[in-house]
């Protein structure tokens, strides 16, 4: 009789502990993991992304701007200077030629 009570109690206790621990651990782990992950990920991602983006953007923008500006300025200046110089030289030469023919 005593043996049956011990076995029954051990079975009930094991069932109770397994249910209690599974519920408790699932709730505790879900809360802990959600809080930890949200805090850790928010801090880590904000720091990582800010550093990564600042480095990436500085490198990318410096390369992009240097290439873009060099190409743009070379094309723009060549076109602008050729047009401006041709107009200016034509006006200047016409004035010089006109002043020489008046004498």
Write a structural description.
- It is built from 1 helix and no strands.
- With 103 residues, the chain is mostly helical.
- It starts with a helix and ends with a helix.
Q: Any idea what the radius of gyration is?
A: 41 Å
Helix content: over 70%
Strand content: under 5%
**Helix segment tally:** 1
Shape: rod-shaped
- What is the averaged pLDDT score? 87
In a nutshell, what does this entry contain?
The chain is mainly alpha-helical. It contains one helix and no strands.
Summary tags:
single chain; about 100 residues; mainly alpha; 1 helix; about 100% helix; rod-shaped; transmembrane helix
List the helices and strands and how they pair.
Elements: H1 2-102
Transmembrane segments: 6-31, 43-65, 71-93
Protein name: SJCHGC06985 protein
Keywords: Membrane, Transmembrane, Transmembrane helix
